[in-house]
C-alpha cells in the first residue's frame, strides 16, 4: 500500500478541519489515524485525559511526517474498569469498546487504511480482538501503542514527563506522589481481582520524581520514531 502525499497544501490534515468534499478527495489516497485514549484517574497530579492527549499528539506527529495521513478526532473513552475505585473515571468496558472499534473502522472504508494509536494499556485486549476481526474481513488496519517501563506504568515519571512536554499547565507537580513501583506483571493478579485501588491507594504505578519536560520531549520523539517505523512497515514506501 505505497501512498503518496495527498496534497501539496501544508498539513498535517485533521478531519475536524475538513469538509466532506475535501475528505472525498483525500480519503482514497490517505490513511486515517485514530487516537484511542481513556478518561481515567492519573494520580493526584495528572489530569484524566493523559492517555488521550498522548495518543492525539502522536497521531499529529505521524501526520506531520507522512503527508498521506489524516487524523481523526480522538476517542476519549475506553476500557478503564480497573480504575473504578477512583472518582471521575469513565469507562465503556471491553465489549463496548470492541464493538465501537469494529463499527468505527468499518465506517472508514473510504480511506486506504486505518491506524489505531492507543494510549491506554487497558484497551489492549478489545483492541486486539477488533483488529483481528477487521483484518479477517479484509480491511487494512494497524494498531500501535507506546511502550514504557513495567515499574512505571501509570502516572509515574514517564507519563508525567510526557505531560510536562505536552501541557505543563495541567501537571500539579506539588501534588505528585510516589506510588507502587512493583513491576506490572507481578501486580496483575491483585489488580485483576481488586482493581488499581487494591495495589495503589493514590492511583500511581511508578514514581513521578525527576520528571521534566526535556525527558518528555525525548520520550515523544522515541515514540514517534517507533510509530513511524511501524507505519512504514505496514503502509509500504512513502514517496
Q: How does this model look, in words?
A:
With 239 residues, the protein is of the alpha/beta class. It has a single domain, classed as Creatininase (Rossmann fold, 3-Layer(aba) Sandwich), CATH 3.40.50. 39% of the residues lie in helices and 9% in strands. Strands 1-3-2-4-5 form a 5-stranded parallel β-sheet, with helices on both faces. The radius of gyration is 18 Å and the shape is globular. About 2% of the residues have low confidence. GO terms for molecular function: hydrolase activity, acting on carbon-nitrogen (but not peptide) bonds, in linear amides; metal ion binding.
The gist of it:
It contains seven helices and five strands; from the N terminus they run E-H-E-H-E-H-E-H-E-H-H-H. With 239 residues, the protein is of the alpha/beta class.
List keywords for this structure.
alpha/beta, Rossmann fold, 7 helices, 9% strand
Please identify, by name, the CATH architecture.
3-Layer(aba) Sandwich
CATH superfamily: Creatininase
Overall pLDDT level: 94
Q: Strand-and-helix sequence, N→C? A: EHEHEHEHEHHH
Strand order of the largest sheet: 1-3-2-4-5
- State the helical fraction: 25-40%
Q: Report the principal-axis shape.
A: globular
For the largest beta-sheet, the strand count, sense and barrel status come to: 5 strands, parallel
Low-confidence stretches: 4-8
**Total of helices:** 7
CATH fold annotation:
Rossmann fold
- Proportion of strand residues: 5-15%
Domain module tally = 1
- Cα separation of the termini: 12 Å
Rg is 18 Å
Based on DSSP secondary structure assignment, what is the total number of beta strands? 5
- Can you identify the CATH class? Alpha Beta
Q: What structural category characterises the helix and strand content?
A: alpha/beta
Amino acid at each position: 500500500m505505497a501512498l503518496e502525499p495527498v496534497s501539496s497544501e501544508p498539513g498535517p490534515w485533521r478531519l475536524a478541519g475538513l469538509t466532506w468534499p475535501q475528505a472525498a478527495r483525500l480519503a482514497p489516497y490517505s490513511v486515517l489515524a485514530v487516537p484511542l485514549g481513556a478518561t481515567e484517574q492519573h494520580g493526584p497530579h495528572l489530569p484524566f485525559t493523559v492517555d488521550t492527549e498522548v495518543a492525539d499528539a502522536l497521531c499529529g506527529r505521524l501526520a506531520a511526517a507522512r503527508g498521506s495521513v489524516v487524523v481523526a478526532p480522538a476517542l476519549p473513552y475506553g476500557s478503564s474498569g480497573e480504575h473504578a475505585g477512583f472518582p471521575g473515571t469513565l469507562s465503556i468496558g471491553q465489549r463496548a469498546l470492541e464493538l465501537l472499534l469494529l463499527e468505527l473502522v468499518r465506517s472508514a472504508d473510504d480511506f486506504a487504511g486505518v491506524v489505531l494509536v492507543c494510549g491506554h494499556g487497558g484497551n489492549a485486549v478489545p483492541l486486539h480482538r477488533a483488529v483481528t476481526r477487521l483484518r479477517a474481513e479484509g480491511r487494512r488496519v494497524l494498531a500501535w501503542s507506546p511502550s514504557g517501563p513495567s515499574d512505571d506504568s501509570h502516572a509515574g515519571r514517564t507519563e508525567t514527563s510526557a505531560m510536562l512536554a505536552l501541557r505543563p499547565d495541567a501537571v500539579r507537580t506539588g501534588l505528585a506522589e510516589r506510588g507502587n513501583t512493583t513491576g506490572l506483571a507481578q501486580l496483575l493478579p491483585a489488580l485483576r481481582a481488586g482493581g488499581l485501588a487494591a495495589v495503589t491507594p493514590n492511583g500511581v504505578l511508578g514514581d513521578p520524581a525527576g520528571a521534566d519536560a526535556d525527558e518528555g520531549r525525548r520520550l515523544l520523539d522515541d515514540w514517534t520514531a517507533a510509530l513511524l517505523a511501524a507505519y512504514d512497515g505496514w503502509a509500504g514506501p512513502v514517496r
